[in-house]
Amino acid sequence: MCIREDLNNPSFAAFIGAVSAFTLVVINDLRRDRKKVRIIRNEIKIAEDHAINKLEAFRRNLIKLKEQDKINPSPILKFSPSIIRQLTIQVLDKFSQEERQSLDAICYSMESIDALIELSTKRVEDFENLKDEDIPQLRNSLKTEYEDTIINLKRLIEMCNNYNNKKYRTILTKQYVRSEYE
Questions:
Q1: What pLDDT is attached to residue 128?
Q2: What DSSP letter does each residue of 36-77 carry, written as one string?
């Protein structure tokens, strides 16, 4: 009879309700955090696919520039490292230090590649306003920038692949030597 009286107590019922609500909130937060981590992993896979597509576009542009002496002013979409950075901040405690640093390295590479692509895109846009004597210098600059972009894209693809295979230490400790990507 004592247990029955305890269960009928409004304070006890409120306590059970509060514990249940707290448990549901904790479980829901854990589920949300796991989902954000999955989204980050998916964004890295998307970035890798995006880098592969950009790599092919820049290889084609370089071939056209070298063989046909043509400059192709095609627009190229930027990477989205800001999404990865924003989500990472929200779930920092879910990553090891190496994984966090790997994400930073990948985001930095994406931003650097986008800056390099933006520079070469501006050069191509200025092509029409150049004097004839400046055109060979522009072609040489573009050739160098395209080659640099291709090398950086290959490196980013490797970094994304290592991240997807959970080889975080490799991303952080590998010496990225240009000649390995030419």
A1: 65
A2: HHHHHHHHHHHHHHHHHHHHHHHHHHHHIIIII--------P
